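Blinded run. Sample ID left blank on purpose so nobody reads anything into the name before looking at the predicted structure. Input follows.
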Amino acid sequence: MGLDQRVDVTVVGSGPNGLSAAVICARAGLAVQVLEAQPTLGGGSRTAPDPEFSGVSHDVCSAIHPLALASPFFAEFDLGARGVGLAVPDISYANPMPGRPAALAYHDLDRTCAGLSDGGSWRRLLGPLTTNADDVVGLLLATNVRFPPTCPPRSTWLGGCSSRVPRRGGHCAARMPGRCSPAFAAHTISRMPSFVAAGAGLMLATLAHTVGWPVPVGGSQAIADALIEDLRAHGGVVHTDAAVTDPPSGVVLYDTAPTALLDIYGDALPAGYARALRRYRFGPWCREGRLRALR
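Blinded prediction complete.
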């Protein structure tokens, strides 16, 4: 089936966010198509075979998926019922420290604090967040139009922690006030300092001690494949090698880098929004991936 300009919703990009949006729309009875510029589907949740060793596969981008267990969408979607196994290791992540032993973040908060030189600081930071993990996820996944119905002190606590973000890049190695243990401080999808990047990092640290950091058995592609199967079962259509250069008709959802809109819409964008997109700077974590994609 070719590209359809008469669909209700077009989703550009087949990463897990775009596919999740497509599934929601298709289940609501809308005609949905997904356009993916690459020859393979899945975006950041793709798994590719090793070019040299048969039977070995590699996750192209993401390998761990805490929100596969924590997000409201996936809680309802139920990956396990669709044959997707999620293995949760005892150690969620580790933070190597120059000249010092590495700090280990266990699935168990108590065990983590017991192994840190100043576990009390880590407990004061993460204890309130892990106790109210649903509020943390609700705040960080909100539309940002308004805060979710969560307890204001908890939101303030998360915001206060997020403001203590370092100016250097990387996923981690921030220091909280006082004699504190190493902290997973930011997921550097944008330049530091960044409230959004710091908040995302604290959410991931919170999930490390609650649902854990699950690894999809067989690779991240299993999540994308489950979403695509459900989308097609509800009438959705998926196209590969379908780079978008002109605005599709109807409602369009973009699961792409924000700067992609500059090439697609050009002068049709409001001037202020276009200036904001031109000022957008990629963080160190995703800049390398963007350059690879451009090559």
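Unblinding after everyone has recorded impressions. The chain has two domains: 9-84+216-256, 91-208.
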